[in-house]
Design a protein that fits this description.
Length: 291
């Protein structure tokens, strides 16, 4: 694919979270190809930028512009806590940059300090040190994956403990213009339109809040913010996908499930050379962790 010099500079300057920064070039070439062009022009570059602006939200793009200029972007301190002396890790998704919305970033931020305090109160590091039968290595760590929404982009389901932002959607009683944008947007086919407005099928809805973001009339709104919790995942030698403990709970619920999980870990005797939480979940299931 050929590139106009200006177009290349424009696309390379699109401010994106590090995890997806290298996709912009491919995205621009894809757009050119779709138009039957063998060259990326400034028009295509603008379209590419606009596409990311829509996908991530203007606020988030502005935040990343400030980061790229080396300015203070006001990212919460909670995202940058380092605790090398602890045997747990907390990995965050790109929502920490506001992608895709500040609401999702805030949902993660609110969780972090209580989560860290709870882990320390429960003595997770001491428990894991006491149970270790070999030199301490990375597989001894208790890994937590936190995402801003249930889309789970960076695979938190491979973590010992996964917490995903979830959003209960409410519907205003009147004012829907029947534009159909929400129905078109929802990848779960969870929305249908009645004469009175949108109807959400709770069995299909994954609580991503995407429909709230696309409804320009404000008919759909976030009624309640919460979290989904899944436990017992591992991306190591014997991969496991974390199993759902609850589809929706509040911060107190997350901490209670964490406490039950750590207690289960503490009370389970070590068999063999290592103790791994996903093996314990395999053995005991998730029922006893429910609230
Ligand atoms: S929250 Fe997500 S899954 Fe649920 S109805 Fe809205 S777009 Fe569909
Ligand atoms: S709820 Fe909003 S997006 Fe959905 S049809 Fe009505 S006005 Fe359009």
């Amino acid at each position: 694919m050929e590139w106009d010099k200006e177009a290349r500079e424009m696309v390379e300057a699109i401010p994106l979270p590090p995890m997806i920064a290298h996709f912009a070039i491919m995205d621009a070439e894809r757009r050119a190809e779709k138009k039957g062009q063998g060259r990326v022009t400034a028009d295509i570059a603008r379209e590419t930028e606009k596409g990311y602006e829509q996908a991530l939200g203007k606020e988030s793009v502005e935040l990343m512009r400030r980061l790229a200029r080396g300015e203070d972007a006001g990212l919460p301190d909670e995202f940058y806590v380092e605790e090398p002396e602890q045997l747990y890790s907390i990995e965050l998704c790109p929502a920490k940059f506001g992608a895709s919305t500040m609401e999702k970033r805030e949902q993660m931020r609110q969780l972090l300090t209580p989560l860290r305090n709870k882990l320390k109160e429960l003595g997770i590091t001491r428990i894991l040190l006491d149970k270790a039968t070999t030199s301490i290595m990375s597989h001894h760590m208790f890994r937590i994956g936190v995402t801003g929404c249930p889309n789970a982009c960076f695979s938190p389901y491979f973590s010992d403990f996964a917490v995903l932002g979830a959003y209960q959607v409410g519907v205003k009683e009147s004012g829907c213009t029947q534009c159909g944008t929400c129905v078109e947007y929802c990848t779960q086919d969870a929305i249908s339109l009645s004469e009175g407005g949108p109807v959400i099928d709770e069995k299909r809805c994954i609580k991503c809040s995407g429909c709230v973001e696309v409804c320009e009339e404000g008919i759909l709104f976030t009624e309640k913010r919460g979290y989904k919790v899944a436990v017992g995942g591992s991306g190591a030698r014997f991969p496991r996908i974390a199993r759902t403990v609850t589809e929706f709970t509040d911060l107190g619920g997350v901490l209670t499930i964490l406490e039950k999980s750590v207690q289960l870990l503490r009370n389970t005797p070590v068999e063999g050379r290592v103790i791994q939480f996903h093996q314990i979940v395999d053995t005991y299931g998730v029922e006893r962790l429910r609230i």
